[in-house]
Sequence to fold (269 residues):
Amino acid sequence: MRHHFDHDGRRISYLERPAAGERVAGTLVLLHAFPLAAAMWEPQFAALPPGWRVVAPDLAGFGESAPGASRFPGIDDYASDVLALLDHLHVDAAVVGGLSMGGYVAFALQRLAPARLRGLVLADTRPEADSEQARATRMKTFETLDREGPAGVAESMLPKLLGATTRYDVVASVRSLASSQRVEGVRRAVFSLMSRPDSTHLLRDITSPVLVVAGDEDEITGPDVARQMHRQVAGAELALIGGAGHLSNLEQPEAFNLAVSRFLASHFS
Ligand code: MLT
Fold:
């Protein structure tokens, strides 16, 4: 179900599936990838354990959330909005799952407010900042955005976002979600992605449970990146999802949901 609230005069929109049953295990916040929106977590809403309240915000400028207002957009702006969401929901600490850009936001939360994190699911993401080459590619993304809009950005990213095994219907829904985003939201996100700081040093200080997930066909943040991150976080667990590319939650939802459900059950019940 969709909800909105106002934060600093801006509208923040989120999807929520309330917990069911007598025992509420906690809140799981899911943070979406670029250039998508909270709706990418649709396959998780029905399938994750019913005792969990599952909340997925549209990050600023995506979906139904207003764009950020800061002059120099940064990844921390998204993290501040997530903290505002936790306040709005009266949640002291949540398990936070982020996929790719959502993972970068989760790292920002780990840096800014580690006490608000009960655990982390780091899916198809990487702790490093952009390389010089990645920044050059971002500049091309700005050009594509100016020339062809979000639909052009979506088209240029699709071959890398999805694995070879992925079915046509998933390709079509990712294309549609990415194409329907707003120019300003996408532009501010590209600035935020290319200016994000390196988070590698944070990994050794994480004390909450961590699950690292990656699609085994992910060409952006593949299994090697996931294995390395897994080695850097003491006690972390690793789930490689067969037959999935970068959007592992959408491409192989059953395997993704099983990995997350097991993680939640083993650490938080
Ligand atoms: C994403 O899926 O969020 C993007 O691939 C992140 C990025 O471009 O670094």
